[in-house]
Write a structure and sequence with these properties.
The complex is a heterodimer.
Chain A: H1 3-21, H2 25-45, H3 49-75
Helix pairs in contact in A: 1-2, 2-3
Chain B: H1 16-39, H2 50-63, H3 68-76, H4 78-98, E1 105-107, H5 124-146, H6 155-172, H7 175-181, H8 184-208, H9 231-258, E2 260-262
Antiparallel strand pairs in B: 1-2
The chains are: A mainly alpha, B mainly alpha.
């Protein structure tokens, strides 16, 4: 295992822990976005660039956006 | 984070101590099985998959694609990709059905101000940065889709990158701008055309090469942009479908969050 792979694994475990620990949904969405990016780095380090590309866009852009929009919808009181 | 003390117990509810014991027993058993499995794992980086090793050896010569993963996705296992594509298609379709304007809802003026929140204007820096990024991101998406058979990437990756450019438009502009750059009927047509083109290319294989999704175009020279037969075409089909699907998905959510509101009078909440 190369140093890059060890660092990537470490970052992913820290990131996953951070997502679980942050309890406030808005903050959690942002932390999850960073986690998606870190997971992308992990896939890249383990020679899966195709998966890395998908994960960076889905995990750090699309998923947090959907969560944020859902939160905005729930948070807005009906007039 | 941990619960301080046991919460008050309702009749018939299992006590906190019992639940903890059950978890510890189940967790220990689970851990034991995991460790047992770990002990038999092959060494790190030690790969013995016959299918993978065979493909690595023959794929470039057979398909003229230098990205073996794309060769698997759009040639050897193109039929599986058809299924995956239609999973996305069905999911977006289901979402659009679920989120359609219900009877007790009506569309209000687009509004991204939650009550009680003072919305700040999008700053000039954000506007300039996002506008400057939209072009390069669309270009990157096209590049990744077109070079799927040569380098990592392909229609799926290119498609979601293209869709994320639309998010930037929303981030830097306003909802109204977004609606203008995203003509929904056109997006729907793109999504349907993308899905249909995949099936049609498959039928082309059935007609010209004898079996569904079989390559029927000249393979070309290894490493050139126009090579690997039907792969680039399939890749573009998937790209169109994925872009359309994601744009529709985000649009539906945006509409729910910004435009649709419930009527005041009547209707159960």
């Amino acid at each position: 295992m190369t140093a890059v792979q060890v660092v990537a694994l470490g970052l992913v475990s820290v990131g996953a822990w951070a997502v679980v620990v942050s309890r406030e949904p808005l903050r959690q969405a942002i932390v999850a976005s960073f986690y998606g990016l870190v997971l992308g780095v992990l896939f890249m380090a383990f020679q899966a660039p195709d998966v890395a590309l998908s994960n960076i866009v889905i995990g750090s852009v699309a998923l947090p956006t959907i969560i944020l929009l859902a939160l905005a919808r729930i948070g807005r009181r009906d007039e | 984070m941990s619960a301080a003390g046991a919460p008050p117990r309702r009749p018939g509810e299992i006590s906190y101590a019992t639940r903890r014991t059950m978890f510890l027993v189940a967790g220990a058993a689970f851990a034991a099985f995991l460790l047992w499995g770990l002990a038999d794992l092959p060494a790190f980086g030690d790969y013995h998959g016959v299918y993978g090793l065979t493909l690595n050896r023959v794929a470039v010569e057979e398909t003229h694609a230098t990205s073996v993963i794309t060769a698997v996705n759009f040639d050897y296992r193109a039929f599986d990709t058809l299924g995956e594509e239609f999973i996305l298609f069905a999911a977006v379709l289901g979402l659009a059905l679920l989120l359609r304007e219900a009877r007790d809802e009506e569309a209000g003026p687009p509004d991204d101000d939650a009550p009680g929140r003072v919305a700040s204007e999008t700053s000039a820096a954000v506007r300039v940065a996002t506008l400057a990024l939209v072009g390069p991101i669309v270009l990157l998406a096209l590049y990744i889709t077109a070079h799927g058979h040569l380098t990592p990437g392909g229609g799926f990756q290119g498609g979601i990158i293209a869709a994320s450019a639309l998010l930037l438009v929303f981030l830097g502009g306003e909802y109204v701008t977004l609606v203008r750059v995203r003509p929904l009927p056109l997006v729907e047509i793109a999504k349907a055309a993308g899905a249909a083109s995949y099936v049609l290319i498959g039928v082309g294989g059935l007609i010209f090469a004898g079996s569904f999704l079989e390559n029927f175009l000249p393979r070309g020279t290894v490493g050139e942009l126009l090579s690997a037969g039907t792969m680039p075409l399939l890749s573009f089909g998937v790209g169109l479908e994925v872009t359309g699907g994601f744009v529709l998905l985000v649009s539906e959510f945006l509409e729910q969050a910004l435009v649709v509101r419930r009527r005041r009078a009547g209707g159960p909440r």
